[in-house]
Amino acid sequence: MYPDFLFAIQRKDGTISSIRILETKGDQLDNLDTAYKRSVMETLTEHFSFEEVTDVGDCIIQDEDISVDARLIMFGDITAELPNWISEE
Question: Do 66 and 7 form a contact (C-beta atoms < 8 A)?
């Protein structure tokens, strides 16, 4: 699965507070694949731990003060959900 967007949410002091992973889907695509991807995003959010991360590649984030929140948002809900989700701290 390749999410559509990755966001780093920054605190006022310039440090990163969280990583947001976003998958989007058209409203007409609300099917078994969408349900599967929504489940993957929920599982990632609930069970991510930096203690279990293996250093691979160039993007290594190991800070226990950073949370990971992954979501699947349907296109019809983007204007209602996205602004609040990316501004939460």
Answer: no
| Distant-in-sequence, close-in-space partners of 52: CB < 8 Å, separation ≥ 6 | none
User: pTM score, two decimals?
Assistant: 0.58
Q: Which tokens go with 52?
A: 């279990």
Q: What is the tally of helices (H) and strands (E) in the chain?
A: 2, 3
Helix residue ranges per DSSP H, the chain: 32-47, 78-87
Residue-wise pLDDT for 55-76, tens only, equals 555 555 555 677 778 888 888 8
End-to-end alpha carbon distance in the chain: 26
What is the residue-wise DSSP string for 51-65?
A: GG----SS-----TT
- Tens digit of pLDDT for each residue in 76-86? 888 888 888 87
